[in-house]
Amino acid sequence: MVLCSVQPWLQQLRLTGGSTLRITIRREQPKDYRAVEELTREAFWGSMDHRTCDGEHLLVHKLRKQPCFVPELDFVAEAEGQLAGHIIYSRARVITAAGDEIEVLTFGPLSVLPEYKKKGVGSALMRHSITEAKILGYAIIIYGHPDYYPRFGFRPASAFGITSQDGRSFDALMALPLYDGALGGVTGRFVCDEVYNMDPQAVEEFDQTFPAKEPAVLPPITLLTAKLPERILRAFQRQEIKYVSQLQRYSGAEMLRWEGIDEPALVQINAALKEMGQPKKLLPTSCFLQLAEMGVRMPIVHKIREKAGIAVYKVQSEGKHCVLKVFEKAADRREIDNYKILASLGIPTLPMLKHTACALLLPDVENSPEYRLGCEEDLADLKVASALARWYRKLHGKGRAYLRQTDLALYDETDKITLANLDMVAHKTNTVANPLWQIIRQHFAEIRRRIAALPRTLTYNDFYWTNLVVARDRSEAMMLDFNLLGKGYVYGDLHNVTSALSPEAAAAFRREYGQVFREEEKEAHECLSPLVGLIVACERESFPQWALPALEELKNGAVQENLIQWLNSQNWLP
Fold first, then answer.
1. Which residues, other chains included, contact 427 with Cβ-Cβ below 8 Å and sequence gap of 6+?
2. Which of 214, 255, 270, 309 is the most exposed place for a label (fewest CB within 10 A)?
């Protein structure tokens, strides 16, 4: 026996402009049948390449009478008391190579009245029905919009070894395991009930029982491509795409495999789709695609920030609170490996719960009973400073041994010190005439030799209180955001911390850390640090405030003086 909630489910959604929409989800009743069929007809009128309805209203009409129909998962949505949407489920099968049949769920059509689209009605139906379907313990496999359903956790069925009935794979065939392992070992052909095979004549006859309606005018693809490069139009023509709505059959990932379509082109296509009010295609680094690949079901996602190709999101799923970090640039994805390195060394960090090639998932510290995010007051807290020193001491201690055993090309901020980068700084800061640059050119080989001779360990390189995690009893402290973790010298890493702490907290940090840095590290740092800072600052579109002290040191001769002192010093390793 299947037990599902029969109580209406209520949700209030805040719309653009501040108004709210009251949505009620309840089971469909016989008195709703004709109204739901009319709703379905309206929802699919002029979809894809059909100027009328392609039979979805007849499918709903017939499904209710079939043995495959699941009445416990037949829901309507009411918005402010008006029927606004509908979803219907049925049983289907995956037939394995050995001929075994495994029962799964499928749904569709999912229908929303045009005036309620993009207002959360479809999402409300999906979330409620999936929650109820989970009681059945199946996986769900559907044919649907491949750039819409990933937001609920759906992935291409091919990822599970499941194809269409005729053995084809395409992204519009999607699957969602309703619990971990629901599709474990399940491979084969997806077969839905024969009721889904619509007879065009029967569709036409059924449609004649509804009020007459003018066929829709489908926007031609040329409306979309009018402002796009010619190669994009040619790509669409090769796929025989005549109407804009036909793009809904393909995922962004599939389109990227077409000749003439790359990521910049897909961004242009999305901009044009947005202007037309059409759904956009998901880019490969979409947060929904990453979460779906991680197996995160029905996530509620809120973007925290996006900067320099790194996007951070708060994620809530099945009662768990997490943070997703997505890296657009390949170089920034080193943070995923950095978490693995730190975990292998036993360095305390937030656990990396899951990851893909370009994203990682962490616990949300703001919902942790044990830890909290750092605050500015922590910079003056002696207990926090001592806990932080213990973390850095462990990082540096284990880092030395690790670097002796690995040949990985880790991030090293001194790699930025190149003649080309220094020329860039000279021009962008209008200091080309500064004598420092000539001195560096004359002694560059020696400078690089001395940099290479500095003792190395793993270094954090990015200290600030916003990257700090503190135990609620202040007994522990650790860092997060390891994008700049790499190899470096101890003095530079410690100076990054102590220069941000209050004098008393800095003293507590040094006492707890307990180890003495080498003098040549300090001498090197006093000239190398401002140079690295200026290079990083000049790589940005606008010069950041935090780099102004380094610029002043350049202009007043302090960097030059420290460089000469370092070059004349005997405190370096031969």
1. none
2. 214
Strands (E) across 261-309 are located at 300-307
In this structure, the chain runs to a length of 574
pLDDT at 20 over 90: no
Shared domain check, 547 and 515: yes
Q: How many domains does the chain have?
A: 4
Question: Among 498, 568, 489, which Cα is nearest to 529's?
Answer: 489
Q: What is the pTM of this model?
A: 0.90
The answer to whether 564 touches 440, Cβ cutoff 8 Å, is no
Q: What is the pLDDT of residues 27-55, one digit of tens each?
A: 999 999 999 999 999 999 998 889 999 99
Q: Which domain holds residue 260?
A: 222-245+254-275
How do residues 317-364 score in pLDDT, each as one tens digit? 999 999 999 999 999 999 999 999 999 999 999 999 999 999 999 999
The residue written with tokens 């099945």 in the block is 318
For the chain, how far is it from start to end, CA to CA, in angstroms?
Answer: 80
Classify the C-alpha dihedral 371-376-379-381 as positive or negative: negative
Same domain as 476, residue 394: yes
DSSP H/E element including 479? strand 477-479
Same domain, 170 and 97: yes
Which residue is associated with the tokens 């650790």? 478
